[in-house]
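#lab-general

N.A. 3:47 PM
ok so I finally got the sequence cleaned up, no stray characters, all 330 residues accounted for. can someone with queue access submit it? mine expired

B.Y. 3:52 PM
send it over

N.A. 3:53 PM
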Amino acid sequence: MPKASDTLWDLAIAEVEKRENPDNDDDVKPGEVWEKSILFMGNKNGGKTTIILRCLEREESPKPTLALEYTFGRRARRHNTPKDVAHFWELGGGTSLVELIRIPITSHNIRSFAVVLVLDLSKPNELWTTMESLLQVTRSHVNKILTKLEKTNPEVAAEIKQRMWNDLQRDHPDYALVDPFPIPLVIIGSKYDIFHFTSRSEALLLKARALINHLAFGYDKSKSVSVDPSKPLFIPAGLDSMSQIGPPPASDSDLGKMRANTPLELWKKVFEKTFPPKSFCDLQDTKDPAQDNQYTEYEVDVMRAQKNQELEQYKRNASKSWKEMDFDSD
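B.Y. 4:20 PM
back already:
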């Protein structure tokens, strides 16, 4: 119920929060529109844009993502109903622009936010480092939002924390080992055709599209499950376990030499021994986008060159004037 003291901004925020659906479309009243947001992140040139375009059914050639890009899609859940809105954010540059994550994920949309991490299977030496870097920063940012919400809106914070465990039953064998991601997370291994030396699979793209449509528009979840390591894996949250996965492929003597506190740490050590990781610094994209030929614009480039010359001249003049100044000493 609006209060007399509410500002127009307060009312707008309340309306957006009311439209955002925290669980499923059963909570959305007939005729009401929901809004969901998804952040795509992962390896540079890993296929994020291609997945988004396929989900939105856009026949466009994917272009490199410069920094943080935004688009949206609209779909109706049923015939003769208003179209829901899905906001798609894409973080470019691999791990080099990870701090931009805080822009799309806010306290106002966190109840209806999901993350899609796209990892390039053809670059195993970058895979684990990229995954850890991006997920750690995202988790930290989301946890800060939840801490703030515990003070300002404890009911929402409690609801989000409860949903974190919805896909994992208390009798799950790994229940004590799991630290669930605070918001819905999907991990997609892209370029499976290159990784497995096979032709490009349209079926895999359709599976990815169905999964994104579930996050974005509330379409039914796929009931498909595939745990055969000789085939593309498709594993919904909570439907596998460390005992089913088994130990990492290493000799008993090698495993005995590795110090690890959890099965995940053990898998990481074996993985990185097989695929020595690139350092975080190596993954940083230091190229100046302004120097990239794909963004060439003659008028802008001429003006930029002129401003660069003026800046250099200013620096020289400033340096000269500072040297000529006399300073009093105590």
